[in-house]
Structure formats: C-alpha cells, structure tokens
Amino acid sequence: MDLATAIDFTPAQDKADIPCLIDTYSTMLYRFCRSLTYSKEDAEDLFQETWIFALRKPQKLQMAKSPQSFLCQTALSLWKSQQRKYARRKRIAPEVPLEFAIDSGENLEEALLRRTETEFVRNLVTQLPEKFRVPLILYYTLEMGVADIAKTLHLPPGTVKSRLFSARQEIKKGLLAYES
Amino acid sequence: MNHNHIDRLLKQALQANEAPSPDLIERVKFAANGGTRRKSVRGRKPLFRNLLIAALCLLFVVSATAFGTNFFGFGLQDMALPSPEPIVFEYPDGTVEEFSMTLISLQHPDTPEHAAAVAWQTFLNAYDIDATGGNWSDVSPEYRIYGAYSLEMVEKIREITAYYELSLLGEMLDIRTEEEFHASIAYGPFLNDAIDWFTGYQFESGTFQGDGQFGNIGFQLRFARRGVFDYVFLNVGDIADFTEWTFQNTFGMPMLLLQSTHASLIILETEAASIRVNILAGTAGDRWNPDAPPFGPSDLEHFANLIDFGQLRSEVPDLSAVFAAERAEMNEAASGFVGTWTRVRTELDDGTALPMSEESGVEISADRQIIFWYSRDFLEFDTTTAAADSAPVGWMITGEVVPISQHEFTIGISYMTFHYELDFQTVRPWELPFQYDPTSGLLRYTDWDGVQHVFTRES
Description:
The complex is a heterodimer of chains A (180) and B (459). With 180 residues, chain A is an all-alpha fold. In chain A, 75% of the residues lie in helices and 0% in strands. In chain B, the strands form 4 sheets. In chain B, strands 5-6-7-8-13-12-11-10 form an 8-stranded antiparallel β-sheet, covered by helices on one side.
C-alpha cells in the first residue's frame, strides 16, 4: 500500500506545519528507527509507518509538547507490535550495519580496531533486553535527557536512570568477558 | 574499565550519522499533502478501499498497448473487469482531482475464473454496505479472505462459485521457510541464483503467491490455479502507456511481456494455472524505490529467462498434512489462552494505575479466532474529531491468535470496527502483542499509548 492510501486524510488547516515537522524530525526519527531495528530495510519501513500513524492524527502530533517523544513513542509501539514481522524479515533480508566513519587523524589500523570494538558493543546492545536497550538508544543515539526519555517511555525518571545504569553494567560485563 | 570508558564506547557505537534519503522524506510529504479526506463519488465505499489496497499490495499499475494478434490470442484489455467508481481527492486549496481505475483479473479471459471475477466485481461496484449493514463476525474465515464482511456478500460468493463451478481458495498457509515453500510449489529449482530470495503464502486449493528480489528490484509471482475463485485483481492504469510483445524464454515457455515506465509484467498460461509475474520496475525504474535501476525490454527478457516456470507443480500439492500440523501446533500453543477474558485494570509500565471507565474484553475460541473489544473516552482517543463528537469511542477487532510462545501471542487483525462511526476501518496487516503470565493467570496488552490493559479469565 502506498503512503497516500494509508493515511486517513484530515482537514488541511490542521496540518499547515506538517511539512516543517517532517523536515525537523525526520533525521531524528530515522536514526531512532535505524538503531532500534539495526536494519536499513526495517528502519525505512518503520520510519514510514511511524509517519503514517502520526499523520493520521496530526493535531496530536502538532499539539504534543515534545514531537520528538511522540514520534519515538509511536515508532516504539509500532516496532513492538510488529516484532514478529520484522523478525521474519530478518531471516530473509540482509542486515546493513550502521555507517562507520573514520575519524580524521586516525590510521587504517586504528580505524579497523575501533570498528571491531564498535561492532562488538553494538552486538552487546542488540542482545540487551528491550527495557534496557531502548533507553540506551534514546540516550546515546538521540542524545535525549533522562526527563525526555522518561516522558517518551512513560517511566519515572528514577526508573530511566536505573535502567541506563543497569544497561551500562551489562555492557561492561560483556566487554570484560570479551577481554578475558 | 570505568564508567567514562563505557560511556565513550556506547557513544561511539550508537552514534548514528545516517539520515533518511530525500526520497523517503518526499514520500512522507507526498502522503501528508496528498489531499483531504478521500472518498468515492457516491459516498463511502469501504470495500472499494479494501480492493484498492489488495490491488496495490499485489501488483502496481499495469496496462498495455498494441494488442495485436499474439499466440495467446488475448491481451490485458481482454482481462479488464467492470471499473469501480473513481476516487475523488480534495486538495487543501479546494481543487478536486479524480483518480479512475481499471481493474483486470488474473485469469485467462475465456475461462470461468475470469467470468466469475467479472461477476464479483460487478457486484462489488454496486454493493453499498451503508444500505445493507454487515457483521464481520458472522462471516466464516474462508470468505473473509475475499473481503466479505456481510452474509449478503457470502451468499454472492456462494452463488458465483456454484454457477461457475469453482472452488474457494481455502485456508492460507503462511510459508515459514524458503525451502518449505519451494518444495510445495515446484518439482525442483526454478529460480536462477540471481534472484535473491523467494517466500510467500499458499492456499489449500493450490493457488500461491511469492515475493522475490532481483537486485534492487522487487517482483511478485501469483500462480492462480484453474478451477479456483480468486480475489486478487490488478489495478490497470492507462493502457496506452504499455508495450506488449510475445517471447519464449530459454526453457521454451511462451509468454506475453508487457512494460511501461514503472511496471513490467509477465503473463503465462499453463494447463494448471494463469501465472502472472509483476516486476516492480519499468523503463524508468521504480517510482517508489530510487535504488531500482531502469528496467528495459532486454532486462525483462533476461529476467524471464531466469525462471523455469515448467518446474512449478501442475498438480495441487497435498498440503493437508502440513495444514493439519500447522493447525495442531498453533491450537496446542494457543490452548492456554482459550477463554473469555475481562479487563480488570489499566496501568502504566511502572504499575501506576489509570482510571478505567469503559469495559474491555477478549474472547479466544479453541480454533484461535479472537474477538477483542475495547473502549475509552473519545476525547482521550482522538483529538482531531473530538469537537464534532465527544461520545465514547470503542473498537472491536476480530482476527486470529498467533502464538509466539506459551506465554506470548499476537492478534493478527483481520477486521476492525469503530463504534462511533459504524464504519469499517481499513488497516494494514497489523499485529497486537499480548503476554500471558501463568503464575498470576493475567493477560496483558499494551496499547499505542503505552497503557497496559490487564485481563483475568472468566471462570
């Protein structure tokens, strides 16, 4: 189904600044989808589905105190509800890892080492339970603060802090096991 | 290894520099600016929406020109069905644009299957659910696949299939592995290695559909078996856009090739079936996929040479054991969820209780059919139209339980009704996640807003 078909269109005056919202938040949303799914295909699908869902109720999006939280929350809900679909696709579509940039002044050997390290950490993150992984993605990928993460995930800030702490501990354990 | 080190590694690992492609953003903007409420000329036609989606999901715009004599003796023009009413888009500036559609069947035009498709489409074009009403829960699953949502529609399908002596598609098996699929549809390998993967679904009657990828170009193959009433039609655009020619591939199979700027089609007729392959690209590529290169006539012929259609099974495979095993496995896995469940509380992830004003419940039968009803305050649910109607809103879903484990299942939604509109909401294939805790005996569902709904089983 194409996007135009999927959206239940609403009156024009309600979405005057929708293109602006799309411009402003698309990169953020795409990065979140990309980190969440770890797959380019799935990320693009989830990205579009999130906008479809959000644009079905444009006022809700426009009136949201934090469109960023609203969009992330929507993407997360969609992703959770369709995990079986994405899991099935994972079996048939190759994963495309996140882009890896070589820092200036870094030689190839250093870059390769860093790349290995980065891939390993990413794998550790993907293995984390969702309740730890999602706050980590919001914190490190989208650079959200604890308060915004709490709002996005409907969690008390204390719980977010505790989950971030636990997530880091899990990563640390994985790295120590790897090094030993 | 201190906190800062972990922090740096995580930053490095999770930093995403990628941005969505301009095309992806344009698609979203296109959808956002596409118009105001979409409606048909004579008011709501929910069924038409379903058909539109079915057509769009299966095969994109296809049409043909230059219908000269070919060894098939027919062209796309001959496969045309009675056209549904056009869709009218109202743009924000008040201008109106009309989108007409021409549908074609997937069948040979001189067959009962095609005649049945014509009869069904004629009925659909005239059918007005607003006048007749309908209740999805009255319709048994073998008719729901045709988009039937009233007993009147079921009766029409029965009449058509009896008159033309056709069978129903039957139960659908969602093929779970590529190997399983291949074994059930073909005697041996039939796809060249250049085709990356091939998966799909199959009906008890032997009709099947597969989806594949050829480089960056997607394609769909439908094997519409003779003697079976099929529900899939194609949306045919402007016939003048297409070029048509006959071709014989390297395996000796004669076929009809059609191509426009954004679509390509292969048509084959065998004793067992009408075979249609839709390649989602034409001479200008794929309008929805910027990665798809232009796909010209020689590319189409090359592609046609990559499939050994003769390997596709001519007889209906006996899948009864597979279907029985699938049903037994699913029923067994779902047996723990069977019953009538009543919502006892709603809460946030951290256990904070929320007010619960309306009733909600889930009914799961032994054959995994589900009815899930749910209501909440309209103002909370949809601010867009709250001003016009602040009555309580609720929705009812019917579908099938798909067990994931003994403690988790999803509902594959097949139908959804919004009480406040008494309308049929078209949804994309959707799955709602439920978790069952055998210790407490509670069933949980987390909705779009992150609210958890907790149910107990009625004794």
